[in-house]
Write a structure and sequence with these properties.
Blueprint: E1 2-4, H1 7-15, E2 20-22, E3 29-33, H2 37-47, E4 56-58, H3 74-83, E5 88-93, H4 100-103, E6 108-112, H5 117-125, E7 130-131, H6 146-153, E8 159-161, E9 173-178, E10 181-186, H7 192-199, E11 203-204, E12 228-230, H8 233-241, E13 247-251, E14 264-266, H9 273-288, E15 294-297, H10 305-317
Parallel strand pairs: 1-8, 2-8, 4-6, 5-9, 10-11, 12-15, 13-14, 13-15
Antiparallel strand pairs: 2-3, 3-7, 4-7, 5-6, 9-10
Helix pairs in contact: 1-5, 9-10
The structure holds threonylcarbamoyladenylate and magnesium ion.
Length: 321
């Protein structure tokens, strides 16, 4: 397995139907030729992902989208013009050229232009789009570094294209239309306020586990393997400390005197939501790897990127089953 910046090598693997982990500004993706059903099947296999959970395809530019869709609704086109390349995924009516396996048989395909120089150069060099879910085993925390990918999928793929740590650190915001209504299906790296600044009020769709439109938005996604308890740290910490429990702490901004410093991670000492988002998944992983029995965490302020951060924290704390 190679961890390298060699674009030609990545291109060769992808052209021969193999998978390569690619850097994006949101999280690392597990990429394969989106037009090759065998490569797409290998993605589901490698991630251990149920085939009813559709994939996002990645293209180099807004112009490259047209051949893969039937139409580009005006409002969504405006969003693409404003925010691509960037952490925005659009659900668009799919052209027949996109294999049904990519969309799990749905009639919309999820598309985005990622904002990472290496991956954009790779996409420009290829004559097919890349299907790429986050490069983690199904249900686990998304990777934001090559080391994260390597830890779980390293044995299963020939190459990780090394683009350094992901700058945004949260998956893309997923947006589509139902009738005239603009719907956000997944909170993510692009804030809702910015979207509304371009297209007006949007609706946030409740992602219950019964939502057939986005089966991947199940609760208990983005979950560490250790129990993850969300609440008021000022109460949780003394409560569990008094019982002599072994736990770690994920705090938004403040240091706790009651917990050893190596057992706590602060997302942003200055309380910056961007910084907190960029640190979130690495922090969850490193707590998950500590010699502790469970993780205590608190929500971020609930505005801007804080909404997406809190969405992931809540999913991490949802009980599995
Ligand atoms: O930032 C991101 O979006 C990253 C990077 C690699 O681009 N990708 C990512 O992919 O997060 P993934 O597969 O982990 O999450 C994509 C989610 C899926 O859970 C799925 O439910 C939803 O997008 N999705 C994909 N295609 C869809 C479709 N046609 N209709 C509804 N939801 C769809
Ligand atoms: Mg994912």
């Amino acid at each position: 397995m190679a961890i390298s910046t060699d674009l030609n090598l990545a291109k060769q693997f992808l052209e021969s139907g193999e998978l390569v982990a690619i850097p994006t500004e949101t999280v690392y993706g597990l990429a394969g030729n989106a037009l090759d059903p065998l490569a797409v099947a290998a993605i589901f296999d490698t991630k251990n992902r149920p085939s009813f959970d559709p994939l996002i395809i990645h293209v180099a530019s807004i112009q490259a989208v047209d051949q893969y869709i039937l139409e580009f609704p005006k409002a969504l086109h405006k969003l693409a013009e404003k925010f691509w390349p960037g952490p925005l995924t659009l659900l668009l009516p799919k052209a027949p050229q996109i294999p049904d396996l990519v969309t799990s048989g749905l009639d919309r395909v999820a598309i985005r232009v990622p904002d990472h120089p290496l991956t954009l150069e790779l996409l420009r060099a290829l004559d097919f789009p890349l299907a790429a879910p986050s490069a983690n085993p199904f249900g686990y925390i998304s990777p934001t570094t090559p080391a994260h990918v390597n830890a779980q999928l390293g044995e299963l793929i020939p190459m990780i294209l090394d683009g350094g740590p992901s700058a945004v650190g949260l998956e893309s915001t997923i947006v589509g239309m139902e009738g005239d209504e603009i719907i956000v299906y997944r909170l993510g790296g692009l804030e809702i306020d910015l979207i509304e600044g371009v297209v007006g009020k949007v609706q946030l769709q409740d992602h219950s586990s019964s939502n057939p439109q986005a089966p991947g938005l199940l609760e208990s996604h983005y979950a560490p393997t250790k129990p993850f308890i969300l609440g008021d740290l000022n109460k949780l910490i003394p409560h569990y400390a008094s019982q002599g429990k072994y736990f770690g702490v994920l705090s938004f901004q403040n240091f706790s005197e009651e917990v050893a410093s190596e057992k706590q991670i602060i997302l942003s000492k200055v309380g910056d939501l961007k910084e907190a988002a960029a640190n979130l998944f690495a922090a969850m992983r490193s707590l998950d790897g500590m010699n502790i029995d469970f993780i205590l965490a608190e929500l971020a302020p609930d505005h801007g990127l804080g909404k997406a951060i809190n969405d992931r924290l809540k999913r991490a704390s949802a009980t599995r089953g």
